[in-house]
Design brief:
Elements lengths: L11 E5 L5 E8 L3 E7 L2 E7 L8 E7 L3 E2 L3 H7 L12 E11 L4 E10 L2 E16 L5 E12 L18 E15 L2
Antiparallel strand pairs: 1-4, 1-11, 2-3, 2-11, 3-6, 4-5, 5-7, 7-8, 8-9, 9-10, 10-11
Length: 185
């Protein structure tokens, strides 16, 4: 494992670039295929301590109404009380509570995920994708990660039994994060 000081030059506070990032999800549908979606409106920031990664922190706020599965009827259903209850719970939030370096370029980010007013601790394994100075002079970093949650743990319990057995929508949901962030001046 490479020493954490390898990341010393990255120390600072970063703002997530929403136009170059993706926060998405995957669910099994009818037990035969996967449906992918994303949230198009979110914001977040993180502070990196390159010498002591465990001192780093992150926060993300997602606008639930921005859910997008490329199907207007399904998106409308996801916004109702059956799923995200967007009118009552307009945001999903994540606030880190701990960060641990697990490999040369991998980190476990543990934090409080709040969906529909229910908060649970989740850990997202992230891989550092690299850093670069973009054409506009911004210092950028990239991270990718994913984890699975049970949606029922967050009060998202709608389902329908299938005639052939099983259910319409899986309880297990995979959350996907593809993050590009710009270092604050």
């Amino acid at each position: 494992m490479t020493s954490a000081t390898t990341y010393a030059h990255l120390t600072g506070t970063y703002t997530i670039d929403g136009s170059h990032s993706r926060i998405g999800f995957v669910a099994r549908h009818a037990m035969v295929t996967k449906v992918r979606g994303s949230f198009n409106e979110f914001e977040g920031s993180f502070t990196l301590d390159g010498e002591n990664p465990q001192n780093s922190s992150a926060t993300v706020t997602i606008q639930t109404k921005s859910v997008d599965t490329r199907n207007a009827d399904r998106d409308g259903h996801l916004r109702t009380n059956d799923f995200l209850s967007c009118d009552e719970f307009p945001t999903i939030t994540f606030t880190s509570t701990g960060i641990k370096q697990t490999g040369e370029d991998t980190f476990d980010v543990t934090g409080d995920l709040t969906i529909k007013g229910i908060t649970k601790s989740v850990t997202v394994p992230f891989e550092f994708g690299g850093s670069a100075k973009d054409p506009f002079g911004n210092d950028r970093v990239g991270f990718e990660g994913s984890t699975s949650i049970n949606r029922s743990d967050f009060g998202v319990t709608f389902n329908a039994a299938l005639e052939t057995g099983g259910v319409l929508v899986s309880d297990k949901i995979t959350l996907e994060f593809e993050i590009s962030a710009i270092k604050n001046a």
